[in-house]
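Colleagues,

Please find the record for the two-part complex below.
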Amino acid sequence: MFDLLLSHIQNKVDLPEEQSNQIQTFFTYKKLRKKQYLLQEGEICKCLSFVSKGLLKSYTSDEKGNEHINMFAFEGWWTSDFNSFINQEKAVLNIDAVEETEVLMITLDDYERLMLEIPVMDRYFRILYQNSLVTKDYRLMVSNSFTAEEKYMQFALRNPEIIKKVPHNLIASYLGLAPETVSRIRKKWSLNT
Amino acid sequence: MFDLLLSHIQNKVDLPEEQSNQIQTFFTYKKLRKKQYLLQEGEICKCLSFVSKGLLKSYTSDEKGNEHINMFAFEGWWTSDFNSFINQEKAVLNIDAVEETEVLMITLDDYERLMLEIPVMDRYFRILYQNSLVTKDYRLMVSNSFTAEEKYMQFALRNPEIIKKVPHNLIASYLGLAPETVSRIRKKWSLNT
């Protein structure tokens, strides 16, 4: 259950064996059915969650009930409404399971205590957040300056496994494109539908 | 010269006296005239820079030569083209001085060495990046779901010192608004021009 989390940490920092065991005590395991909420808009996001199996999506809903995808969280990814988690304010995001999913959850208190007790975890999260900032900057740039076709093709080239696994309408929503636009681009480039 | 940087670090983490002295050896001081570039699009962003005095802005330029403000960096803020710095790829941002400015610069090698030699700096940057992610999420949400008036008034309420100090056309660019829109909103709310 903890293998993926521990290997994810060990890929970024040196983690002694005894600390591997200690880390596990900070997390709670939860299994979600397909479509089950991990977080609903308006709640306080109590935990930062690591996806050990499955796939989550986070999104906002508009007045018409349309979902606008904020991000996907695959196996080995972290997810939360980060502002809600860090500042314990009301969440603006919903997070639910695209398929049956398993998560390892840590509360804010335990997250702070984890880094005080195992300081190398500061390094782990520093590297994680550093990468996340680079990705967000790239996404903001793409969103401001790329055409629909450039957006989709850049995304497809950088995330071949997501393109295979995630329904096209969700990817369209993530990229802020109409589903018909994505169909047209896929047809033009002869991508299997 | 290092007082602001050291107090910024000490506000977030416990830093023993001898490490305060050691940290200073990792940085290079640079003074910029008004309008002088710290970084130009297409260069590799060699350093992460801490503003010890003055004000920088980072921006992209479109084909017509219009500047689109990415962010401001005030005294006590860090700035860079972060992807260019971390991955040593070509910068997409320009960074220049809005007024006479002094920066403390650290190269990528020294940044990595700093955290290996003074591990509490991992904690400092973890907290810094954590706050930055929260801010970026908020900015993305504002950009996607607020009206022009909401954008400006939210920004003005959260950043009164920026509103006072930065020319209105730069703030308009940062918020993705036309300068005339900002003038109209300021007039409506009877803000001094």
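Chain A touches chain B through 27 residues (CB under 8 Å).

Comments are welcome before we finalize the supplementary table.
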